[in-house]
Known about the structure:
The chain is an alpha/beta fold and 285 residues long. It is built from eight helices and ten strands. The protein folds into two domains: 4-22 and 67-150, Dihydrodipicolinate Reductase, domain 2 (2-Layer Sandwich), CATH 3.30.360; 152-279. Helix 1 crosses helix 4, helix 2 runs antiparallel to helix 3 (44-63) and helix 6 packs parallel to helix 8 (223-237).
Amino acid sequence: MIMKTIAFEKIVSEVEELCRKSSLELPQDVLTALQNAEKKESNSGAKKILNQLIENAKIARERKIPICQDTGLAVVFLELGSEVKIEPENKTIVDAINEGIKNGYEKEYLRKSVVAQPVNNRKNTGTNTPAIIHTDIVAGDKIKITLMAKGGGCENKSQFKMFLPTDSAEKISDWVVKTVADAGADACPPFVIGVGLGGNFEQSCLLSKKALTRKVDSKNNDEFYAEMEKQILEKINALGVGPAGFGGDTTALAVLIETAPCHIASLPAAVNIECHAHRHASIEL
């Protein structure tokens, strides 16, 4: 087998760029969703806030400043081709990703939000590393890196629940809606809602976050779950929480469901809430 060689420093520089792009440039699909929501919004106050969010995104892009002061924990989804090797061989792709994040956050003056320990001595690492890296080994000679800058406010409102395997789609949907309602203004609506169903305890949570890497105007390939996405979104927007929590028709921009097979005795579910500053970017090498 002929292996494709990718230089360590190339990965570092590309991850630096992902840090810059994700923090300063709102993805076009998210911006379009905000613009469409503003056009349809019936509440004048909510319409004004949506306009402000759109203007904020424009200012961030043009002036090259962060969309939000919370520039997030770096969450990386890595697809590593089995025919790829990193050069030099004493370096790993994890090292490259973390170095790229360290450099990117330093060069772009992005807030560093990682503490080394969760309870004892919560001292800032000063680099916004280590990143949270989820790796899939895939066929081929490509590397795909997707970086999400995940803010603390919305992340804090995410939830997990183990349902009975006999529970209905309606019961699960109602729980998702309640989770969003409980989050309210604290998680900075309008939201993008990732839902993970199936797998086990940890996989359902991972699915809920991975769902957030989809385009906000996409739908699940399975019509059952696509309909579930649609119905949950309608129920969430009927809550009236609205942009910034001041009321209106637009509490969420999208609900995105991902699923996995699970044990016959289990039905794990997770909700990962993302705020209106839905910052992510990808590169393929």
